[in-house]
């Protein structure tokens, strides 16, 4: 019997991201994917700055081309590409309070899913993940010590793998979720739609910076967008099967011209739905991505990007438990942190214009939360956070936070050893204590030793020098004697705004609560 620490089922964006983040932390990982590679009909194309922050930390920063600063995804309603263009519709209404602050060293990316996945597979493999394509999960059983999985290769060969944990990233129909008997709630199935992927020389219609087109004309209601590499997808609002001649006529109708060469690549049929699993874990099995939450495509990137951060959140916790640094209870915080985020994004989708007409009461007059808050300012509440009170809102823009526990540690530029870095470059590998007062650092070594947890102490003003010291203190909410404890995923776990009477006792208590889940 083969054995590994983690078995990841599903090799799409979320599954391969899970294997990447686990391998980056040194966790032996096997990924199985029943297909030979990426889908010929790519789905996601937009990746948020937060997603790029995670990939950047795992060594992919230079390999994924990022969008230019200030890039904004634009959509217009049109008769056709060559016909009349009507109004432009924003994803989130503009607000007079919109900030021009720099929130991240990353800007996001616009790359087709089938172009990104091979990069992730290569990096995961280079870090030690065992990627097995053409291999499907037949069934699995779990017990108190682990999970046994029966696998079948395309050749027909069957074998078993024993793993400590299983991550199910096997899509919205998730056989693993079904086998566990986990139900789903939410807006539900909205409709089944069809699409056609094609190649055509349409670059002239992208000069205005618009990349999404809502086609609205008699006889055709459809959505047209580009993958930025010569490929376009036309998504119909119905489930009608069309032969090649009918498809060609509809594509010409959407373009508004019939004199261009159009090459058909493939077609698709898929369900538009919004459903959240009633729980994200069962024993030693965890759901991630569409297996945990199916959300309709949207300009906020709430589908793939939400799943990628699921994988990142889970990876450090699994690593900590497998290493013995944390108790298995830490894994309970995965559901506690990620399921509310899925529900918040579900609500926000139906609060906005794109899907408001199809909300069916789902949004319940919810206040629209702006993009920066949804991207960088979501709040975690769990046993892995100490001090995230119920009075705090679910999300705020970074400048509206001040380093509160449960929030993403803010980006700021610092100098370390003469090198210009983002604060984000200091995090995501181990626990980090940031403090300006040197009296914290003897406590760091002692508390870490007592708890058996790796904690790096960073002395502000000595080890790292902020380019703007006052802005830095304000962003982290620290007085000159304060300290912030940052988790391995870059979220603030605990904070002391000033120097307590007994720093060792305070830090030891905090670490026991948030790192060991005592």
Number of domains: 3
User: What is the residue-averaged pLDDT?
Assistant: 94
Using the CA coordinates, give the radius of gyration: 24 Å
Helix content: 25-40%
Number of helices: 12
Give me the secondary-structure category.
alpha+beta
Termini separation: 35 Å
CATH homologous superfamily grouping of the largest domain: FAD/NAD(P)-binding domain
Domain FAD-binding: 4-344
Keywords: FAD, Flavoprotein, Monooxygenase, Oxidoreductase
GO molecular function: monooxygenase activity
Protein name: FAD-dependent monooxygenase
Structure notes:
The chain folds into 3 domains: 190 residues, FAD/NAD(P)-binding domain, CATH 3.50.50.60; 118 residues, D-Amino Acid Oxidase, Chain A, domain 2 (2-Layer Sandwich), CATH 3.30.9.10; 129 residues, 3-Layer(aba) Sandwich (Glutaredoxin). It is of the alpha+beta class and 518 residues long. The model has no long low-confidence stretch (mean pLDDT 94). The strands form 5 sheets. Strands 1, 2, 7, 8, 9, 10, 16 and 17 form an 8-stranded mixed sheet that branches. An 8-stranded mixed sheet has the order 5-4-12-13-14-11-15-18. It has a 4-stranded mixed sheet with strand order 22-21-24-25, with helices on one face. The chain is built from 12 helices and 25 strands.
């Amino acid at each position: 019997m083969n054995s590994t620490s983690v078995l990841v089922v599903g090799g799409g964006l979320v599954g391969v991201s899970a294997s990447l983040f686990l391998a980056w932390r040194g966790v032996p990982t096997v990924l199985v994917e029943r297909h030979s590679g990426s889908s010929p009909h790519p789905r996601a194309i937009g990746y948020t700055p937060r997603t790029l922050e995670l990939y950047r930390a795992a060594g992919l920063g230079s390999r994924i081309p990022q969008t230019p600063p200030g890039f904004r995804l634009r959509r217009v309603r049109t008769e056709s590409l060559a016909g009349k263009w009507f109004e432009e519709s924003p994803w989130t209404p503009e607000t007079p309070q919109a900030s021009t602050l720099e929130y991240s060293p990353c800007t996001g990316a616009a790359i087709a899913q089938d172009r990104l996945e091979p990069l992730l597979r290569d990096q995961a493999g280079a870090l030690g993940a065992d990627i097995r394509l053409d291999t499907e999960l037949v069934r699995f059983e779990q017990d108190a010590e682990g999970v046994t999985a029966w696998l079948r290769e395309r050749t027909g060969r069957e074998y078993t793998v024993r793993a400590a944990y299983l991550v199910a990233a096997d899509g919205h129909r998730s056989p693993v979720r079904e086998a566990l008997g986990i139900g789903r709630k939410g807006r539900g199935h909205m409709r089944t739609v069809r699409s056609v992927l094609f190649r055509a020389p349409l670059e002239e219609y992208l000069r205005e910076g618009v990349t999404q087109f809502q086609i609205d004309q008699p006889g055709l209601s459809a959505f047209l967008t580009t993958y930025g590499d010569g490929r376009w997808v036309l998504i119909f609002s119905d489930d009608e099967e069309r032969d090649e001649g009918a498809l060609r006529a509809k594509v010409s109708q959407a373009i508004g011209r019939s004199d261009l060469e159009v090459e058909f690549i493939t077609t698709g049929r898929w369900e538009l739905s919004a459903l959240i699993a009633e729980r994200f874990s069962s024993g030693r099995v965890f759901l991630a991505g569409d297996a945990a939450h199916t959300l309709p495509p949207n300009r906020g990137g709430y589908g793939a990007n939400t799943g990628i951060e699921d994988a990142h959140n889970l990876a450090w916790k699994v690593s900590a438990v497998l290493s013995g640094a944390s108790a298995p209870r830490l894994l309970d915080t995965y559901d506690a942190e990620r399921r509310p985020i899925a529900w918040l994004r579900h609500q926000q989708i139906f609060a906005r214009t794109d899907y408001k007409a199809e909300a069916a009461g789902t949004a319940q007059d919810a206040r629209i939360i702006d993009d920066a808050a949804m991207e960088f300012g979501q709040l975690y509440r769990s046993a892995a956070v100490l001090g995230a009170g119920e009075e705090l809102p679910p999300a705020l823009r970074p400048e509206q936070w001040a380093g509160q526990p449960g929030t993403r540690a803010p980006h700021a530029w610092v100098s370390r050893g003469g090198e210009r870095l983002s604060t984000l470059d200091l995090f995501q590998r181990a626990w980090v204590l940031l403090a300006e007062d040197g009296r914290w650092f003897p406590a760091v070594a002692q508390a870490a030793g007592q708890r058996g947890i790796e904690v790096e102490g960073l002395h502000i003003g000595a080890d790292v020098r902020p380019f703007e010291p006052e802005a830095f203190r304000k962003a982290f909410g620290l007085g000159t004697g304060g300290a912030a404890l940052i988790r391995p995923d870059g979220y603030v776990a605990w904070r002391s705004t000033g120097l307590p009477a007994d720093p060792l006792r305070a830090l030891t208590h905090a670490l026991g609560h948030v790192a060991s889940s005592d």
